[in-house]
Design goal:
The structure is a homodimer.
Chain A lengths: L1 H35 L2 H32 L3 H34 L10 H24 L2 H26 L7 H33 L16
């Protein structure tokens, strides 16, 4: 019985890692769809979110049943409660990739990203992928070095986010209000994606080391950085 | 022992209701600070978020200890797991009120809200208050009628959110990019605040009726509504 319990716990961990792959791929494809105004790709990201949502409900239910049936000791219970939180973060990350894809779809056949901002959006997409890939490693292997790198990658994300605002506010730029709205929202989606991945990694670090980080600091706004 | 368990469970419910009061008050004051460019009020909202965060950590820990010590049966365990999710929603709502207050602080002594948009922002603030007050009632008294009203209030919020975008995109309006960014972000904060309150109420409805609603639909973007 005890062995089956740990098998089921391992299966939950494997599902969480799978979710990091799915939402990482979703954000990567959403970024490409946004930059290339690729409608088919955007649609595929939007459709694929259902898979993430199904996995979310599945992990939730399996974790709950494991708690209810096995009455785990405090340490194992802590792992399960933490899994419930991580799966919620990952589900939300899927939504954020979907939001980026929806901006691409909304502006098709035009592109939502003005030429001057392409490289920043590209880098935000890449930072998102690095962060979520590392979150997967942290879940799978409790790799605390990767957790540390991930925090640095998220600093990069925040820097890119501020850069995006600086470009929007540059008096030389006049891409119009609609574009400013799109870029403001897209920037926010990338930044929140990073925050949730940081949150996932910190939860694992807490399980391993007992050191609790505070939740990610509130997003830095335009002129605060 | 059993009685003490239910007392502790009731105390957790009371703390959740208290959190709805705190974040409702925070969003109300943040809205006033935003509309009146009231720096002192904005600072008080920002400072008060620590109380919400402390309560969040406290409820989390109490719920966890109750699970670990009492090994509750499935029904009671479901209540505790749900409480963990609700407290996370409420903590996030506090952050969103804080974000609104930070916009007010950032633009002080100017106001971030142009005259034409004041009434819409005011109504979004009021909708936020109604929604979170009803979420409190739903938690406290399992009032399913209030849960239904809350869904309707959130539809109002979504309508106001679309209205805000329509005003920003009106060719007659030219408040500038900075203002468009502020209003885009503020609009998003109100809308997410409403979503989280809806999520809290739906979790209670699920506990009471067993009817599961899907998570709130992804935010409606500018030209999708």
């Amino acid at each position: 019985m005890r062995d089956q319990y740990h098998e089921e716990l391992d299966a939950i961990t494997a599902s969480l890692v799978e979710m990091t792959n799915l939402v990482g791929s979703a954000m990567s494809r959403a970024t490409t769809a946004l930059l290339d105004a690729d409608l088919a790709l955007a649609e595929s990201v939007i459709a694929a979110d259902e898979t993430v949502d199904a996995l979310y409900r599945d992990v939730e239910e399996r974790a709950f049943l494991l708690m209810a049936r096995q009455q785990p000791v405090a340490g194992d219970l802590r792992i399960l409660v933490t899994s419930l939180r991580m799966v919620a973060d990952l589900e939300r990350m899927g939504d954020l990739a979907l939001h980026v894809a929806k901006i691409a779809r909304m502006r098709y056949p035009a592109t939502a990203v003005p030429p001057a901002m392409r490289s920043t959006i590209l880098e935000m997409g890449q930072a998102a992928q690095r962060i979520v890939a590392k979150a997967g490693s942290v879940i799978a292997s409790k790799d605390l070095q990767k957790a540390k790198e991930l925090e640095a990658d998220d600093d990069v994300m925040d820097r890119l986010h501020r850069q995006l605002f600086a470009m929007l506010l540059d008096p030389a730029w006049d891409g119009g209000i609609e574009c400013a709205i799109d870029i403001t929202l897209a920037g926010r989606y990338y930044e929140r994606f990073g925050d949730h991945a940081v949150s996932v990694a910190r939860r694992v670090v807490y399980l391993v080391t007992g050191e609790r980080h505070e939740p990610p600091a509130p997003a830095v706004l335009v002129s605060e950085g």
